[in-house]
Specification:
By secondary structure, the chain is α/β, with parallel strands linked by helices. It folds into two domains: 192 residues, 2-enoyl-CoA Hydratase, Chain A, domain 1, CATH 3.90.226.10; 67 residues, no CATH class. The protein contains ten helices and eleven strands. The strands form three sheets. Strands 4, 5, 6, 7, 8, 9 and 10 form a seven-stranded mixed sheet that branches. Strands 1-2 form a two-stranded antiparallel sheet. It is globular. The two termini are 42 Å apart. Belongs to the peptidase S14 family. Keywords: Cytoplasm, Hydrolase, Protease, Serine protease.
Length: 317
């Protein structure tokens, strides 16, 4: 049978073939290996402009188990952390060392209560918040209302006393980043991240009195600890009374919509787009007619309160 396909139009192999060996890309690779020149500046971590994110699967677990969980207790010495760790581009919120420092100055030299329900976010910012809290001269009580995952679990360890809901979770894992480059860049990335994982092990070990090697294994396995497990392992001291926690359904719905926006941004970044370009692309969608179908009455044109409508518009395209 004659093959009419042009000679240069050959199918691309799904794997790289070297001799008799078939080398499939590693699990951490984004797409296929590319033989193109690198961008102007080296990819991560050569420019050291890196954020250690919470994995998307952890956000999904948070949405299933803890989204919308809030505390009933209020007071002038209470700091609430019901958000992602690090400044959140999409809301202008987020848990940052700068904001926590300002809250501590406003409260003054008093005992502090920190209420946490967070899927984590930027691990480096979480360490900064932890250090800010540890510098406070008065006792700090941390209350894990729903989940303290990833970077938020580091913040939780700042408590002199840590209380956790019976159905709440503390999650610990290794530092997680997006990286691009060749094998030398990947090796450099891994070596550069190792001290940060070790620093987290030290923080958990100092609080829990558990063996560092055991904690490292828990981090490798991405371990979720329920309230009773966290207490048994020294990551918490006592259970919270059940009547101190409630679920805000409106907050839960907003948490879900925001997470979908963050997931879209991460998908674009995973495809090789910069975070700036990804956000610009999503902002164009934001301006699509009819996107803000459920905007809060009185909200301005640039308000993100119509996230449900925005997501419906995106999904229908």
């Amino acid at each position: 049978m004659m093959n009419n396909k042009p000679a240069g139009d050959k199918p691309k192999p799904s794997a790289v073939v070297l001799g008799s060996s078939v080398l499939r890309p590693p699990r951490g690779a984004i797409g296929r290996p590319q033989g193109m020149s690198r961008p102007n500046a080296l990819p991560l971590p050569a420019n050291r402009d890196v954020s250690a994110f919470t994995k998307p699967a952890v956000f999904d677990r948070w949405l299933d188990d803890a989204a919308g969980v809030r505390a009933l207790e209020t007071g002038d010495n209470v700091i609430t952390m019901f958000d992602v760790v690090g400044e959140d581009f999409w809301t202008g919120g987020g848990i940052t060392a700068k904001k926590v420092s300002a809250q501590l100055r406003a409260i003054g030299p008093k005992p502090i209560v920190v209420q946490i329900n967070s899927p984590g976010g930027d691990m480096f910012e979480g360490i900064a918040v932890y250090n800010v809290l540890r510098e406070h001269p008065q006792p700090i009580t941390v209350k894990v209302m729903g989940m303290a995952a990833s970077a938020a679990s580091i913040i939780a360890m700042a408590g002199d006393t840590i209380e956790i809901g019976a159905a709440s979770f503390i999650m610990i894992h290794n530092c997680w980043v997006m990286a691009m480059g060749n094998r030398h860049d990947m090796r450099e990335t891994a070596e550069w991240l190792e001290p940060f994982d070790n620093a987290m092990v030290d923080v958990y070990a100092a609080r829990s009195k558990q063996d560092a090697k055991l904690i490292a294994k828990w981090m490798d396995a991405e371990t979720f600890m329920s309230g009773s497990q966290a207490i048994d392992r020294g990551f918490a001291d006592a259970l919270l009374p059940a009547d101190t926690v409630t679920v805000d359904e409106n907050a839960k719905a907003l948490d879900r919509d925001l997470n979908d926006i963050r997931a879209m941004e991460l998908s674009l970044v995973s495809a090789g787009m910069s975070r700036t370009d990804a956000r610009a692309r999503l902002n164009k969608i934001k301006g699509t007619p009819g996107a803000a179908l459920e905007a809060t009455p009185g909200a301005g044109a640039d308000d993100w309160s119509g996230l449900s409508g925005l997501l419906s518009s995106i999904r229908s395209n």
